[in-house]
Design goal:
0% of the residues lie in helices and 41% in strands. The chain is an all-beta fold. A four-stranded antiparallel beta sheet has the order 1-6-2-3, with no helix packed on it. It is globular.
Amino acid sequence: MTDWQPIETAPKDETEIDVWAIPPKGPGCRVTNVCWTRMTDWDGREFEGWTGMYPVRFGYRHEPTHWMPTPAPPKS
């Protein structure tokens, strides 16, 4: 497995990756299958950002600090 890398070096071509993210309060956590993509907000405005960065259990946005490639699935 690859070591964590700074988020500034993450691919921004819709490749799925895992990120380490820090919420405004509380500990950090690993968020899996995240990618940089174009999205639309509630008002229909388009923007770019990381998918999967709004976990319901915390209720606010996590900010990714590091990334690594998504591991391969089990062979069996």
